[in-house]
User: Fold Creatinine amidohydrolase from Aureimonas jatrophae.
Amino acid sequence: MKIADSNWFEVEAYLKGDDRCVLPLGSTEQHAYLSLSVDSILAERMAAEAAEPLGVPVFPVLAYGLTPYFNAYPGTVTLRTVTYMNVVRDILDSLYRSGFRRVLIVNGHGGNSPVQPVTMEWMDEREGARARFHNWWNAPGAWAKVQEIDPKASHASWMENFPWTRLPGRPLPNHQKPMADFDRLKDRSAEAVRELVGDGNYGGYYQRDDAEMEALWKVGVEETRALLEGDWR
Assistant:
């Protein structure tokens, strides 16, 4: 049940019997040869496929997040941390006013992790409110599948290269890129990050077989759905 495909009458009717919803979080940032919207595409699709059999509403993805380290790559858009925290809090407050009490946040971008303390504060301040923050790609099941396929996986590498995130007509390298020196990335400006990372892939193969990607996606959907339908007490 996508909110984009619903009207308010239908949401009001749904809330008479259930108070769950899903909020996907993404970002707009460089992903080497892949779409700049990778994180948003994956978070929204993951949320929709996980929630569809349950009839739980999925809100449109928040397509901008925290990614200042990629500011030297054209097309990247980042919010200030205080702005992002306030936006997420305003969304959660709006959901609560509507009648939603259980919110599964499906996050597609690691830089958005600072939002988790916001959800904790929100739950403390709103009676009956529950929020689960879910990084779908590094949850236990999904990450185990990544390691099973190829442990050398990172930002903008094969693990984000699905049929729905790659761009038609853009050929990809077929070699395995050496992993970036993450210790050197920790204290670098955006320009220095670009100098160190180059095309944007942090390391690993650029693409794997689509059958492997389908297997990873299936695990992610099942794991996300289990959180949505599990015990919320």
The longest strand covers residues 20-25. The chain has eight helices and five strands.
